[in-house]
């Protein structure tokens, strides 16, 4: 049987098993086991699967993921987001759309603290959405801001998406973190510009938020900055040790997790129950993630061994199009996969195939990693599965429907596409910072 | 017999929850060790030989052994879009199918992991690092134990499906 037929059978099997609701990790594991046994026979097939699966637990960088998840869980329970939001509200002053802009700033800070998207959207959904709705903000605008700004965590360092990409592509995670910072800020800037333009054109979309403190002179308002001092120190500590090369990403994540506990302690919110719940939630989150990784690593390992990787690389490099268009094709493949696969599985399945092609075409895999993360960010918002929309739905008032959320995020998906295009067309937007740090 | 199966499901649920929640402490220990390494390296110029391997081993233990807890709480990530199309009754049947396929796949995985695990038990493998720990031996056995744990919890979930005593099943199987 040719590799083309095997590839087709693998894809059909994956789709069929996923459709009946089999967990994604078990889906890829089942297909990899079946492929290995059918191709190599039981003994050799099992040997290959065991070798692939065993490798997963030896990936040191992977343990940064539970650390960041724990950090996010502690911060989520510590009320730090509320303090940041309140500080920003006063510091931001009086202008139309200020709460929307503040939400974007808080989202950037939260993203730089944890790298986990889900918790961030839940936090913003609980704090910023009721505030904007109470003030009479256009509901779709408010929803779109929260989903899009919350999804920045996939791109702004220390993004867990980039950690997983770095592992799969075997490129420096530190460089990826440096490369993604500017594109992340560009996207945040695009969102802010969009908000300001929209509310300028249609003032009724965002009434001016007026609290007495905003009327104080700027220097008197500085004392309200205290709400962002601790988060600022935490961000500085985590990103500082990563960028300076003082510690590995995993150690930086550990420092961040300890820092989050200290922050909660300083704020007098640290309790045993809070720590216990954060740890239990961490176990449940990463306990499901590891099976996704095991399944995906097993499948791609088998597929590469039977020549699938070479086959797909051959198909990509033989396309009669320019190198940049090959990158675009890869991005489109990721987008299509994003409609039915979890991002971790997408990364482990596609990146080992794509990354060598990217290098062969003369591109930097770090730059490709940033594009990849931006693409994953679009998938986070896109129907039918856009996880960001589901996260917001879980904490939004009942009258907010899922359809409304999906419509609300459309302009922001367009802005993400603009950002993706900018980084695609001007790789230096991503690559100048890693080059400078070198 | 029905009562015996129910007792098994209850016992397995309790064990999974207990082990899973105990595993959460391992993550905390892992965080503390990794942060301590940075402090020892830069604060006291005394880097350790053991922190990386110990952190990895603790983390791997928590990851693998929490599988029962994750399965008991139906927290595996899956796509449930078809539920809207086929309706709750058909989806209920699909749920059994999911669990049966998953059990078969994890049994096959445990068979694949059995040989490497028994091999390292007969002849210990070492990491070959400066610490030269037994981590490779431990991790191979750990993976096998994890798959057995997964199978046992899946069987408990199947019993609950058959007896109609499932709790919230909005997540994975």
UniProtKB/TrEMBL annotation, chain A:
RNA-binding is among the record's keywords: no
- Domain TRAP C4-dicarboxylate transport system permease DctM subunit residues, every copy: 11-429
What's the protein's topology in the membrane? Multi-pass membrane protein
Main location per the UniProt record: membrane
List, alphabetically, the Pfam families matched.
Answer: DctM (PF06808)
Q: Which UniProt keywords apply?
A: Cell inner membrane, Cell membrane, Membrane, Transmembrane, Transmembrane helix, Transport
The terms under GO molecular function for this entry are: transmembrane transporter activity
Tell me which domain of life the UniProt entry assigns to the organism this sequence originates from: Bacteria
**Localization (cell):** Cell inner membrane
| Keyword Transmembrane among UniProt keywords | yes
Q: What's in the GO CC field? A: plasma membrane
- Span-the-membrane segments of this chain are 62-85, 105-129, 141-165, 177-197, 228-246, 282-304, 324-354, 366-385, 405-433
User: What does the record give as the function of this protein?
Assistant: Part of the tripartite ATP-independent periplasmic (TRAP) transport system.
Query: Subunit structure, briefly?
Result: The complex comprises the extracytoplasmic solute receptor protein and the two transmembrane proteins.
Membership in a protein family = Belongs to the TRAP transporter large permease family.
Q: What is this protein called?
A: TRAP transporter large permease protein
Name the species this protein comes from: Donghicola tyrosinivorans
């Amino acid at each position: 049987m040719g590799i083309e037929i095997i590839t087709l059978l693998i894809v059909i099997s994956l789709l069929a098993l996923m459709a009946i609701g089999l967990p994604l990790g078990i889906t890829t594991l089942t297909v990899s086991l079946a492929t290995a046994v059918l191709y190599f026979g039981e003994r050799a097939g099992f040997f290959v699967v065991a070798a692939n699966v065993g490798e997963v637990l030896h990936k040191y960088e992977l343990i940064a993921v539970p650390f960041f998840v724990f950090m996010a869980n502690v911060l989520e329970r510590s009320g730090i987001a509320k303090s940041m939001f309140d500080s920003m509200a006063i510091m931001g002053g009086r202008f139309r759309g200020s709460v929307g802009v503040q939400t974007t700033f808080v989202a950037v800070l939260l993203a730089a603290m944890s790298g986990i998207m889900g918790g961030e959207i839940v936090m913003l959904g609980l704090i910023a959405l009721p505030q904007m709705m109470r003030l009479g903000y256009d509901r779709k605008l408010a929803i779109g801001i929260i989903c899009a700004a919350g999804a920045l965590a996939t791109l702004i360092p220390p993004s867990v998406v980039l950690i997983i990409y770095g592992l799969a592509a075997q490129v420096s995670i530190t460089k990826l973190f440096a490369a993604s910072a500017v594109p992340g800020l560009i996207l945040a800037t695009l969102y802010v510009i969009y908000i300001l333009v929209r509310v300028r054109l249609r003032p009724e979309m965002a009434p001016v938020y007026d609290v007495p403190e905003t009327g104080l002179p700027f220097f008197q308002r500085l004392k309200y900055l205290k709400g962002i001092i601790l988060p600022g120190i935490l961000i500085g500590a985590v990103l500082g040790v990563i960028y300076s090369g003082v510690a590995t990403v995993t150690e930086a994540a550990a420092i961040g997790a300890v820092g989050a506990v200290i922050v909660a302690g300083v704020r007098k919110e640290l309790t045993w129950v809070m720590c216990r719940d954060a740890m239990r939630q961490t176990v449940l989150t990463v306990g499901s993630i590891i099976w996704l990784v095991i399944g995906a690593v097993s499948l791609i390992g088998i597929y590469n061994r039977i020549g699938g990787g070479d086959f797909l690389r051959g198909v990509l490099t033989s396309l009669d199009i320019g190198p940049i268009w090959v990158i675009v094709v890869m991005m489109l493949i990721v987008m299509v996969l994003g409609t039915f696969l979890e991002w971790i599985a997408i990364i482990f399945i596609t990146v080992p195939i794509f990354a060598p092609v990217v290098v062969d075409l003369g591109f930097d895999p770090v730059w490709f990693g940033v594009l990849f993360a931006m693409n994953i960010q679009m998938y986070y918002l896109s129907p039918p599965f856009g996880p960001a929309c589901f996260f917001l739905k879980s904490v939004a008032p009942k009258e907010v429907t899922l359809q409304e959320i999906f419509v609300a995020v459309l302009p922001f998906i367009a802005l993400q596409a603009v950002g993706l295009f900018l980084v695609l067309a001007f790789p230096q937007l991503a690559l100048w910072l890693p080059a400078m740090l070198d | 017999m029905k009562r015996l199966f129910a007792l098994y499901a209850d016992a397995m649920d309790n064990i999974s929850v207990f082990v899973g929640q105990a595993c959460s402490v391992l993550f905390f220990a892992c965080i503390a060790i990794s942060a301590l390494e940075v402090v020892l390296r830069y604060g006291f110029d005394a880097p350790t030989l053991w922190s990386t391997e110990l952190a990895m081993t603790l983390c791997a233990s928590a990851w693998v052994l929490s599988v029962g807890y994750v399965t008991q709480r139906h927290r595996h990530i899956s796509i449930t879009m078809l539920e809207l199309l086929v309706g709750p009754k058909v989806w209920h049947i699909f749920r059994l199918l999911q669990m049966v396929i998953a059990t078969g796949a994890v049994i096959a995985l445990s068979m694949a992991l059995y040989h490497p695990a028994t091999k390292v038990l007969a002849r210990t493998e070492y990491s070959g690092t400066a610490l030269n720990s037994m981590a490779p031996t431990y991790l191979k056995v750990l993976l096998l134990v994890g798959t057995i744990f997964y199978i046992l919890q899946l069987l408990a979930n199947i019993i609950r499906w058959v007896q109609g005593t499932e709790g919230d099943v909005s997540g994975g199987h």
